[in-house]
Amino acid sequence: MNIPVLKIDQFQEEIPLNDFYANTFSNHIKLNKTLISRPHKHNFYLCVLFTEGSGIHEIDFNSYTINPGKVFFLRPGQTHFWKFDSKPEGFIFFHTQEFYELKFIEHKLNEFPYYYSFQNPPVLKLSTKKSSILKKKFQEIYSEYLKKRAFRELKIVSLVNTVYIDLLRRYTANIQQENRYSSNYLSILEKADILINEKFHEEKLPNFYARQLNITTKHLNRVIKETLNKTTSELISERVILEAKRLIVHSDENLANIASRLEFSDYSYFSKIFKSKTGLSPINFRKKYLNK
């Protein structure tokens, strides 16, 4: 069974608005329980603030604790699900890329660090004070969403942008000044990440991505090493292994077919590489995950 990709128009809404959705988290869970009761992907950007509750949020096979003051970010294509120990509360909104970028022509969603790279953590912990301030802004978004006022979309996207900027400041607050990289390096990293995400199935060598970016392989390696402390090959390999994990766990495909889909020469080579990166063979990884 393939992992479902949920679309924005599948979610039940009280006041429909093209390409945007907002709700309290408890109501969101109640209305859409059948959609989100198992691991799934989205075709949109999602942001959620928890004000109450506890549990685990698994995103691309990494587990994060849920507690008050936590903010989570999800970009299209990421696999996730929730598991709650106590009743959650908070606010959630999500939107398409077009909803935001058609109104902010000078700013793109993938310029926010929590959206532009799989390498950046999809979670932010806020202080009680900051969480209270942000809660009021989420409430304002939700209130505007429920009312059919003039210029509703413009107001909502303006409020969303304000939230994103506030979160950006908190997200980057702990980065030491000496670790802030040049805009050129960050631009290269962003473009490399997008390219790898698009081409990792068939292109697994650094020189391909360097050529696409019109830079030398040596320079691409330097940028990735200085910003992420990884090699380009490691970045490509991590994306391949992430996709392999998704397919192994969330599909019923034969493992040999998965190896073929990822364009490995044969299953034994795929299994060897997968085990070297995860410590488990593909079949044992599937068994361990499904028996959790």
In brief, what are we looking at here?
The protein is built from 13 helices and eight strands.
List keywords for this structure.
alpha+beta, Jelly Rolls, Arc Repressor Mutant, subunit A, 2 domains, 49% helix, globular, AraC-bd, HTH-like
Layout of strands and helices, then pairs:
Blueprint: E1 5-6, E2 20-24, H1 25-31, H2 33-36, E3 41-42, E4 45-59, E5 62-66, E6 70-74, E7 80-95, H3 97-101, H4 113-116, E8 123-125, H5 128-146, H6 152-171, H7 183-199, H8 206-212, H9 217-228, H10 232-250, H11 255-261, H12 267-278, H13 282-290
Verbal overview:
InterPro entries: AraC-bd, Homeodomain-like_sf, HTH-like, HTH_AraC, RmlC-like_jellyroll. Residues 190-288 form the HTH araC/xylS-type domain. Keywords: DNA-binding, Transcription, Transcription regulation. This is AraC-type DNA-binding protein. The protein has helices at residues 25-31, 33-36, 97-101, 113-116, 128-146, 152-171, 183-199, 206-212, 217-228, 232-250, 255-261, 267-278, 282-290, and strands at 5-6, 20-24, 41-42, 45-59, 62-66, 70-74, 80-95, 123-125. It has 292 residues and is an alpha+beta fold. It folds into two domains: 5-171, Regulatory protein AraC (Jelly Rolls); 183-290, Orthogonal Bundle (Arc Repressor Mutant, subunit A), CATH 1.10.10. The strands form two sheets. Strands 2, 4, 5, 6, 7 and 8 form a six-stranded antiparallel sheet that branches. It has a two-stranded parallel ribbon with strand order 1-3. Strand 4 and strand 5 form a beta hairpin. It is globular, with a radius of gyration of 20 Å.
